[in-house]
Amino acid sequence: MAVRPVPEARAGRPPTTSREELQRIALGLFAARGFEETTLDDIAAAVGVSRRTVFRYYPSKNDIVWGAFDEQLTRLRAHLEAADPATPLMDVVREAVVAFNDYGPDAIPELRIRMALITGVPALQGHAMLRYREWSEVIAQFAAQRLGGDASDRTPQAIAGAALGVAMATYRHWIEHEDADLIAELDGAFRALAEGFGGA
Hints:
The chain is an all-alpha fold. It has two domains: 19-63, Orthogonal Bundle (Arc Repressor Mutant, subunit A), CATH 1.10.10; 67-195, Orthogonal Bundle (Tetracycline Repressor, domain 2). It has ten helices and no strands. The chain has helices at residues 19-33, 40-47, 51-57, 61-66, 69-81, 89-100, 108-120, 125-147, 154-176, 182-196. Helix 6 (89-100) packs antiparallel against helix 10 (182-196), helix 8 packs across helix 9 and helix 9 (154-176) runs antiparallel to helix 10. The longest helix is centred in the C-terminal third of the chain and has 23 residues, at 125-147. The protein is elongated, with a radius of gyration of 18 Å. The chain starts with 18 loop residues before the first helix and ends with a helix. The relative contact order is 0.12.
């Protein structure tokens, strides 16, 4: 996997430092050195900021890998809620998940690094389970609204669990095949999932 060069440490906080820049540099360090081998001090030095500034942007090193996940969940929920009620449930889920993962071509290299870390680093798995649950609950809540009942009911939970499983399987396939198109892969996988749920 090609990784962009890690910037050298800079003295003082540069005026252009942002949450996105910090994340970009940190992902480069994780890819080059390993997640567990990279410390918050390493990240702060590479960005040219204090350790306190790193914490201002991200509560933990794990959160850097996930980026703006909370904002993305809000976008996913909004997409689901704005869907035409006449559109089949699983078609809405497919369209929302595809949109959720459509970062544009410029973001693909960093997205590959992020997903390789999330799916492959043991130290991130506990944190990942919490994030997966948050994502699944958004899907389950939408399914429950469509079907009637509660998000904790069996069918909404089954749909959410299946959606998560399909998404993760697709991510792993995409990471292993650099010529694969993530959007096309997700679209195809979720179309197959919709057939399994009988056009719900």
